[in-house]
Amino acid sequence: MNLRSSQPLQPLEGDHLNRASNVTPIKASRRKDLPLDYYNYYNSQRPGDNHAQVQQQQHHQQEKVKKKKEKLSALCKTPPSVVRTRKGIDYRRGMFLGEGGFARCFQMKDAQGKIYAAKTVAKALIKNEKTKTKLLLEIKIHKSLKHPNIVNFVDCFEDDVNVYILLEICPNQSLMELLKTRKRLTEPEVRLFMVQIIGAIKYLHSRRVIHRDLKLGNIFFDPDMRLKIGDFGLATVLTSAESRRYTICGTPNYIAPEVLGGKQTGHSFEVDIWAIGIMMYALLVGKPPFQAKDVNVIYERIKCIEFLFPSDKPISESARVLITDLLSLDPTKRPSINSILDYAWFKGPFPSKTNEEALTGTPSGVNNISNTQSAHNFASAKNQAGIYTPKLKNPVEILKTDLESDQPRTVLPQSLSPGDTRAKYQEVPASLINQDGRSTRKFYFNSKFAKSIIKLEKSLSDTVHNLRSLRSRAHDSELTARELPSCEHPTLISKWVDYSNKYGFSYQLNNDDIGVLFNDGTTILKLHNSDRFLELIPQDGEGWSCIENSVSHPPSQARRLLEIVDFFAKYMNSNLSKVSENEERKDIVFLRRYTRTSDYIMFEMTNGTFQFNFKDHHKFCVSKNGLVMTHVSPERAIQTHPTVLLLEQGNFLTADVPNCLEKIAIIEAAIRAKI
User: Same structural domain for residues 202 and 56?
Assistant: First the structure.
């Protein structure tokens, strides 16, 4: 699954303002993006011959399909912050990654800090044996696969509301997102991509698996920019090489003509060959060959093989020949998976690999590769993609026991979730690799952040101790000015938005630094008046590792996170008022954690200060281990004084605060509860 989904960030409505949202916004999909089997079901319900009635029914049907799409996605509940499996393994839920028609994807982190993608399917969707069998078949097929160009299956488990499919995380987007950014790709790049895709499909077919939903959006880049095929929700296994399937399914722009024939024709491995042609055309031209606004027009064009090579987007003659053969109406006329790479088109310039430069623009020198080097690179790519691997003799088998639950209230049989599947996962490396093979991402394990959790725990206990002590000293007549601490206004959270049901908690400090505490515990802190940002990653209760990078040239892993930070920054600057006037940055400060109650929200900062925003819009900040307290009024007037003087006088010195001592007592109790 794709770690950095490019789905546009949803607008924040008024009821998201400074409070947790109970509903994750859903982006409605167009009808032609629905899987065909669902489209046909709804389309078949349209009655009547009267033109006006049909038009009206079509409109209602479109709305019904959209609502059904939204409803199915909405059933996938956000997982709890910690998901525990039957084997006692805990996974911490991270940020929301994206969603499809019937599932949502979240980051999951295990106890060792390894990050995965969890495809989450709501049990409410599994209403009958047919739906359950379809899900278990997807799991069984995917679990049985092991290939360098197929997303690694890690594990599967369930809780009371969801089924989770744990997968290798692919953080560098999909081919669809790459095409949206680049508009068109060069032929050398597409040659390399096609070899990797063909290698994976050859492996699938050798195991009698048909994917049936191959498309740019289901092919992802791993951390090394190697392509990986994912999403086996429509995959099936043939009982023999000669058997056929008759279900009408797939994505309209990619569906093969024989699939549209349903039971009259049947389909087999050739539907994946057709999809190769569609993807090759789309990458070289910029859109699928049969694309239209009306899905029925798409189907008519497919049935007639009605497509053109646009003159304003020229591609080589050898590419046209291959695409035309791949998109043959007769499945038997299409080249076999073993013969595609024999076409002349593959003899052109061929790069040794791709890198992250390709995510935003044409890689340098990609068209200037010698024939000798291209031939060497082509052979190497085929070897890495398993083209030379002898045909396997162990096709995927679906056993009855694989589709039967061990307990009445569970969905997953234990046979689908063996204890050793987690060992298959390869941790995503921390560093990025550029085209020269050197790391371009540097870790700065600053002593300022190392062991800081331990210091914060000490700050908690010291603050509680000092508040107790100050209460007893508040009326000490011998207290002298020399004993009073110096008072400076602290760094405060000036604006905030709680969007933790999808991304995390966003805030702006009164020094104008912008931060997001993501659901996996990672913080992105964008420094004001600077081209730098910090990625702060928690380190097993000891502190944070700090990764510093450029805002203008962020690494791909952080690009999506930075986009979310910018989204929240724009929203807060446009819609929220500041708590206090700006302060100069004294130090790097960010939010450690926060607690919400019906009376206040409590912020614990990494410099040991505690901020309390009460529901009457008065704000308190406890700093210097409880020795100093700051108040910000609803009108943004700020005053900072020694805590002992507040306790002695029963209120702040400059302006009275309603229920001041009661609020201080609440603050002391809240901090004590954190020890």
Answer: no
Where does residue 48 rank: exposed (0-12), middle (13-18), buried (19+ CB within 10 A)?
Answer: exposed
pTM above 0.70, yes or no: no
Q: Which residues contact 121 (CB under 8 A, 6 or more apart)?
A: 76, 102, 103, 135, 162, 163, 164, 165
Average pLDDT of span 140-165 = 92
Range of the domain at 145: 82-169+400-424
Exactly one of 155, 213, 272, 512 is catalytic; name it: 213
**Residue 438 belongs to a domain:** no
The SS3 call for residue 565 is helix
Contacts 24+ apart (CB under 8 A), 478-483: 479/644, 479/648
The answer on 354 and 258 residing in a single domain is yes
Nearby residues of 110 by Cβ (< 8 Å), 6 or more positions away? 89, 90, 91, 92, 116, 422
213 classed as catalytic: yes
Same domain, 107 and 57: no
pLDDT for 427 equals 31
| Continuous H helices in 183-294 | 187-206, 257-260, 270-285
How many beta carbons lie within 10 A of that of residue 420, not counting itself? 7
Asked if the model's pLDDT at residue 548 lies above 60, the reply is yes
Q: Is 658 helix (H, G, I), strand (E, B) or coil?
A: coil
CA-CA distance, 387 to 206, in Å (whole number)? 11
- For residue 400, the Cα-to-chain-centroid distance in whole angstroms is 34
The separation between the first and the last C-alpha atoms of the chain, rounded to the nearest angstrom, is 38
- Tokens encoding 623: 């700093």
Please tell me whether 502 is known to bind a ligand. no
**Total domains present in the chain:** 4
Cα separations in angstroms, 642 against 467, 482, 492, 652, 657: 11, 12, 17, 9, 15
Query: Which residue type sits at 603?
Result: F
Which of 74, 96, 115 is the C-terminal boundary of a domain? 74
* Residue 389, domain member (yes or no): no
Residue 309 CA to residue 319 CA, distance in Å, equals 10
